[in-house]
Amino acid sequence: MVKLSEFALFMSLCFACITGVNAQGQSTKDGLIKQPPARQLYADTLLNKDAKVDNVITISDDNNESYTFSEGQLGDDDDYAGTTAMVSSNDDYFLSEVGYLFSPMRFRIRAYESMYNNVYANGVMLNDAERGQFSYGMIGGLNDATRNKEGATFLEHNRFGFSTIGGASNINMRASQYAAGNKMSLVGCNRNYLARLMYTGSTGLMENGWAFTASASYRWANEGVIEGTFYNSLGYFLAAEKKINDQHSISIATWGSPTERAQQGAATEEAYWLAGSHYYNPNWGYQDGEKRNARVVNSFEPSLLLTWDYKINDDMQLTTSLFGKYSMYSTTALGWNGNAADPRPNYYQNLPSAAYDVWDLEYTPTDDEYNDYMTRYNYWKASKANRQLNWDYMYFANSQANAVGGECLYYVERRHNDQLALNLGSTLNIEYNKSNTGTIGLNLGTTKGMHYKTMSDLLGADKYTDIDKFSVGDFGPSSDYVQNDVDNPNRQIKEDDVFGYDYDLYVNKANLFYQHQFNKGIFHLFAGANVEGTTMERYGHMRNGRAMEFSKGSSGTAYFLGGGAKLGMVFTFNAYNTLSLGAGFENRAPIAYNSFIAPRMRNDFVQGLENENIFSAEASYRIAAGPVTAKFTGYYTMLNDLVEQNAFYNDLQSQFTYLTMTGVNKVHYGVEAAIVYNVTSALSFNAVASVGNAEYTDNAKGFLISENEKVVMNDKVYMDGVKVDGTPLTALSLGVDYNVNGWYLSANVNYYDDIYIDASKYARLESVVGKPVIDATTGKEVLNLPSQFKGRGDFMVDASIGKSINLRGGKRLNINLSLNNILNNQKMITGGYEQNRGDSYADGEARTYKFSKNPFLYYANAFNAYLNIGFRF
Amino acid sequence: MKAIKYLSVLALSLFTATSCMNDFDEPDFKEPPFGNNEIGEANTTIADLKAEYKSTISANGAKEVTDETIIEGVVVANDETGNVYKQFIINDETGAIIIGVNDVGLYATLPIGQRVRIDCKGLHVGGYGYMAQVGGLYEGSIGRMGKSVFPKHVRLIGAPDKTQPEMTPEVIDESFFTNENKDNLAKFVRLENVEITEADGTALWAPEELAYNNVVERHIKMGKTNLVLRMSTYADFANEAMPDGKLNINGVLTRFKDYWQFVISSTSDIEQIAE
Q1: Using the 8-state DSSP alphabet, how is residue A84 labeled?
Q2: Number of other CB atoms surrounding residue B208 within 10 Å
């Protein structure tokens, strides 16, 4: 009855965590947990119990042609996060391979955030002006329609736009640029979706000067590999182009990807242990026996692109594009009202380790504590339903409230981030003479972001009043302070009504740039400069009770003027040796999304808001010696004066809290290498390495405000030395490629390490950390800072096999099977986050449950396969 | 054009295939999806239960119930506003008793007016400050039963209904405050024409600066008798002003050791008498 053996295992796991992870600023090289003998047993138990194949960040595509966005980059899990793609104008083996190769671990090149990578289409910028990132969900499922692209790194010349440190790419969406013919492909896989059907057809440029291209796709899973998730996504792309004469060409493209998908949630190691799988998903539960997920994303970003290509003369070409989109993006989440209990199954109070301090091995639990522990443990283990949400309970609670005229207890809210954007991009390419070419460009953009939440499902409740439940205890239910909209007090909310918060963010951007390149003999020079202006404004539609004078109406407009310059040189000594050097800096506006101190409720800007400063330099050497070609690059990037914001539920004050940091400084540096050894024309070996560091270099200023407070608190955040998270800082690969008779085979062994999770800024606040104490042995002042959680370094093996068959009449059949994580390594985290809660109560008394020892983790996908059959006709 | 033909066929089939995957009907409950629907008829009253464990209660002890013991009552106080925490109080025609459960948001299934049966077998009955309580064992004394234990011992009967006879408190006067009555608490009562001693129209119910262990003791003056009115800083109305003047108050009379205590679960239990 009492699972003593498993209990002992958990204890040893806890012990391992203490010894392995908590050694001041260090964590064990061999991974999550150091290995006392029982730990391996635990691991085996964990891994064998639910030996089903799980999860995925989907990757890979049709064939091994040129580098393409992998599905992982297309943001199956998150429309913003994910691997960043960098495309080079050169034939750069490293850049063309790593995005695909390392995508199972959500690798980001140089650990840059995705906002430092610009995506253009026909020369107009597509990145979201509020967050700075490109939303891959916009082109979800449109792989064929968006494959044709050119790219440039930060220090390379390009003909379409100004690139930032993460590089830039330009998707060519002109209908005439798609290969004439039809292509149908079918995918079967065990990932976020299970099947994909895609068709792309193009007329090519016809004799009458017209070209048409169309693509459609559908991705589907009634349940993906992660339990309780589904995927339902359509994609369409329609393009037409008319070549009017030799000088003028007009093209139009419209596309969109209406998608509905359910999400996976992270959990703590304890919950994974109890559930017997690293792919446990706390987001779903049973409703009347059916699985229902509380976190569902709905996204649809219908887009329109108009392009005018004007060849002024043989030496001058003008490309002008106008891009517009109306994006509708929402995520649902469970809400609980009044004094209702937190319904999440993995809420810490439900976990066994909340029964007593399992981390203190000197401590022997009392009988009561032990029994409490075992009761919780047995509850988790008794049935799957116990580990998941209980929708029936929530419906029942609401029906009970209805019976007595009470307020809704449980509901599903939908948080909307809609956006209307209009961008104009115009570039003039000039060839002055054989040695000199230049590109002058202008990008103008205006964006209105609409942020609000609606009542998605009242779960049968009759009554929901729009007040802030966290403020009720502080001000009393009848106070104006508790109103989310004082102008409409105690508003009764029905399904689809807007409630809670409702505001718009207006961002205008202008960017003027010039790029020049000069070639003479072995020498190539590239220089570029830009000037950019940004304005931002918040407009509130509600008069929030906690910010009555500064929540409704306009915030006023903030103006930012920035610019940058860069210089690159390439010395092509001979066909075998090339040296590239370059450096650049950029002074740019902070992103609007981080610029307001508590955007859901207030109009005021973050104090001391100023431009970010970025400096980056790199050097690379390319060498070809016989059958071996290699390229080595070293880079160094400083990001200074950044603004970052976190929003989280602060348990200590029972409030939703914003923590904004200003004066954030980071450094990213490292080396990249790619070596290809062509043994024969059919057989080659390759090695790819990215070894670097990315970390905060200083402590930052912190501004803290809770949604039920009126005053902003200033604090200091101990960020110095905290690592950039969510990507392996070390990624190595050894691979082999073999092609024969239309067959192609490849296999890779990859090693990843230095994977950190998102450090809690809250846990690093001066007010939380406390004052320095004198270390007994050294006599020096030390701070009791939490150590950042680091995942284990380990290997993964991937392989793919494909065959291309030419059929009669120019038709072609492509079959490709990709196998990822063949060794079924289920112990590698891709990221996660520390909890924004302290280990003690407000009065300093220690809590039983240790938030600092229970980070939320995401694990890389278990073994998975992806079969793609493509037919060209 | 071939492409357009293929595309239209594909588009048509896709649009028919694409329908919302996230539509759910409201569940229709034939019986409550919470609690133990197997629990049979009540076989004892609340007063009898208290009488049976009288010696344990008065010794501040705790004793496991080993016989088939089922009580039935209606919820008269719960944790909806946060003034009552991790417990609720049920009342039958013989009296009221505190049920301690180590969980929050109990009012989700147990709104005021909900009739319940409690299967006491396997639970503990005991006294905390001589106050009778059904719950679990905590360090040898009476405590709260575990969150996952509770559903096995409770059965919800019918829909909540505030018009049931058990919902009518007994109006008491000063003559009620005898030692004999003190030993048989809790009791759901109505106090008429009383005053809150500290109320002046602006004084708050339970401001943090006056709290000890998150509790502020206010007082009800009833003739010559002073009752402690136990207010929690976690109550939703903790920072609202107490009503002054003459009041009629519904609530549960309890004790802590030798003090009479009065518990309200919401300000709607209070009625100001127009002067």
Answers
A1: P
A2: 12
End-of-domain residue from the set B166, B195, B227: B166
Question: pTM value?
Answer: 0.90
Put simply, the chain A residues between 153 and 192 with a CB less than 8 A from any chain B CB are 182, 184
Chain centre distance of CA A434: 43
B152 and B185 in a single domain? The answer is no
SS3 assignment, position A229: coil
Q: Do B27 and A287 touch (CB under 8 A)?
A: yes
Q: What is the DSSP string of A490-523?
A: TPBP-TT-EEEEEEEEEEEEEEEEEEEEEEETTE
Min Cα separation B224/chain A (Å): 32
Count Cβ atoms within 10 A of the Cβ of residue A854 and give its class: 0-12 exposed, 13-18 middle, 19 or more buried.
Answer: buried
Chain B contact for A385 (CB, 8 A cutoff): no
**What is the structure's pLDDT at A22?**
33
Using the beta-carbon criterion (under 8 Å), do B14 and A203 form an inter-chain contact?
no
The domain that contains A198 carries what CATH number? 2.40.170.20
* B159 and B219 share one domain: no
Instruction: Identify whether residues B151 and B57 lie together within a single domain.
Output: yes
Q: Does residue B38 belong to any structural domain of this protein?
A: no
Whether residues A339 and B107 touch (CB distance < 8 A) is answered with: yes
Q: What is the pLDDT of residue B19?
A: 57
- Determine, yes or no, domain membership for B31: no
Specify the pLDDT at position A229: 96
Q: Are B161 and B175 in the same domain? A: no
State how many domains chain B has. Answer: 2
Q: Say what the pLDDT of residue A367 is.
A: 84
Domains contained in chain A, number? 1
Work out the pLDDT band at B14, boundaries 50, 70, 90.
Answer: low
Identify whether residues B206 and B141 lie together within a single domain.
no
Peptide bond between residue B186 and the one before it cis (omega within 30 degrees of 0): yes
Question: Which of B4, B146, B240 is opposite residue A375, by nearest beta carbon?
Answer: B146
Q: Given pLDDT bands bounded at 50, 70 and 90, which one contains residue B11?
A: low
* pLDDT, position A29: 33
Tens of pLDDT, residues B200-214 = 999 999 998 999 989
Indicate if B162 and B64 belong to the same structural domain.
yes
Closest-CA distance, B138 to chain A, in angstroms, reads 6
What is the sign, positive or negative, of the torsion defined by CA atoms of B154, B160, B161, B167?
positive
* Domain end marker among B128, B151, B166: B166
Domain that holds residue A661: 93-339+408-872
- State residue A652's pLDDT score: 65
Q: Are residues B117 and B194 in the same domain?
A: no
Residues of B in contact with A184 (CB under 8 A): 6
* Contact by Cβ (8 Å): A774, A810: no
Residues A582, A585, A590, CA angle at the centre, nearest 5°?
A: 145
Of the candidates A370, A386, A376, the one whose C-alpha atom is nearest the C-alpha of residue A4 is A370
For position A17, what pLDDT does the model report? 41
A212 touches chain B (CB under 8 A): yes
On whether residue B29 sits in a domain, the answer given is no
Q: Is the dihedral of CA A649, A654, A655, A658 positive or negative?
A: negative
> Would B142 be classed as within a structural domain?
yes
Q: Could you list the residue range(s) of the whole structural domain that residue B160 is in?
A: 46-166
Q: Which residues of chain A have pLDDT under 70?
A: 1-91, 651-654
A361 lies in some domain? no
Which pLDDT belongs to residue A770?
80
**CB distance A656 to A762 below 8 Å:** no
With an 8 Å Cβ cutoff, is A404 touching chain B?
Answer: yes
Q: Do residues A296 and A414 lie in contact, with contact meaning Cβ atoms separated by under 8 Å?
A: no
Tell me if A347 is assigned to some domain: no
Q: Is B163 on the interface with A (CB under 8 A)?
A: no
Name the DSSP letter for residue A380: H
B240 touches chain A (CB under 8 A): yes
pLDDT in tens, A116-130: 999 999 999 999 999
